[in-house]
Write the structure tokens for this entry.
Amino acid sequence: MIDIQVKYFNELNTDELYKLLQLRSEVFVVEQDCVYQDIDGKDEKALHVIGFKNNKVVAYTRIFKPGDYFNEASIGRVVVAENERQHKYGYDIMEASIKAISEYYNETLIKISAQTYLKRFYNNLGFNEIGEEYLEDGIPHVAMIKK
């Protein structure tokens, strides 16, 4: 079981910010062997959905209101620590993110840019592919929408 909290950027304390950036770097840069600019200047606009377990950040997303990333509300930087994936926290953090978009932005239409190998995971959450596969930072992605 994880404790999920939703925070604006200015509500994050230094320790939380450090831990969530560390997890993002651990997975997106090191594990996926992808050199890219994770700290992209968009965190200040995002709502941060953070899954804590024993005071560690083990799951995370950031969400945006319509117009801040895509025309639609969106969820990005979806990540679960490698040693915690067997617990299916990806579903917990995504369901909390979908709920937060509804509560904070009063939106149900959500667009994501999903890594292609995770299509089935996102399909299980109600997302459907739109358009063709494309490369983002050298990794195959596909746009997906949840209505």
